[in-house]
Write a structure and sequence with these properties.
Mean pLDDT: 84
Number of helices: 5
Oligomer: single chain
Distance between the termini: 28 Å
Organism: Sinisalibacter aestuarii
InterPro entries: DUF6778
Number of strands: 5
Largest sheet: 5 strands, mixed
Keywords: Signal
Low-confidence stretches: 16-22, 24-41
Protein name: Lipoprotein
Structural class: alpha/beta
Radius of gyration: 17 Å
Shape: elongated
Pfam family, one: DUF6778
Length: about 210
């Protein structure tokens, strides 16, 4: 069941990208055997209240192994995952840990009436190389596809949709942040926390009808 849900979310990501062009280079690497599922999550959900009251009790993050990576210290490597802010290792696992930790912290303390689970598939995680961070600056491009389910029944409450941000950071800002012990990971985690808090609590007028 878990693999099917992830496949559906990935397929929905591809459908969103095809319709809107995506943000920050939304990945469309759905395997051929997933193509019949395109769009199958869209609209197949119970009516969404305008002001839902959620308590997040579970977060499931997936960072597909099909997302490309690079250790090149160039201006902007053309890959899906660009994360060099930790020692060399499994970049997919590192990104998974960062996103999971930030999403968890972002929804901490919410005590709504309905227990829900967030399912998120990362589609782009593009931080800055050292060369870019200290020379011309750039943007942290963090994008994912998220769905919300009832924590107990698994009922799909909100269909998969794209969320994320492109966060500009200049060399001056980077140096000022680092002088205060704030590094790329801290910048990205803070932005993810703010993003998910907003996404979970804002009115659902955009999902009505």
């Amino acid at each position: 069941m878990k693999s099917l849900r992830i496949a559906l979310i990935l397929a929905a990501a591809a459908a969103l990208s095809a319709c809107s062009g995506g943000h920050g280079g939304l990945v469309t690497r759905a395997d051929s055997n997933e193509m019949p599922l395109l769009g199958s999550m869209m609209g197949e959900h119970a009516p969404v209240p305008l002001n839902p009251s959620y308590k997040v009790t579970g977060i499931e993050v997936t960072v597909p192994q099909t997302l490309t990576t690079s250790e090149e210290n160039s201006i902007k490597p053309r890959v899906d995952l660009l994360w060099q802010g930790e020692p060399l290792g499994d970049r997919h696992a590192q990104v998974d840990a960062i996103v999971t930790e930030a999403l968890t912290a972002g929804v901490a303390g919410l005590d709504g009436a309905r227990a829900v689970k967030i399912e998120a598939v990362v589609t782009r995680f593009h931080a800055l190389t050292m060369r870019t961070r200290y020379s011309i600056g750039g943007e942290h491009e963090i994008w994912m596809v998220m769905a919300i389910r009832d924590a107990e029944t698994g009922e799909l409450l909100e269909p998969a949709r794209e969320i994320g941000f492109d966060l500009p950071v200049s060399p001056a800002e980077a140096l000022a942040n680092e002088a205060n012990g704030i590094y790329q990971k801290d910048e990205i985690e803070a932005a993810i926390r703010e993003m998910i808090r907003y996404e979970i609590t804002r009115p659902r007028d955009f999902l009505q009808g």
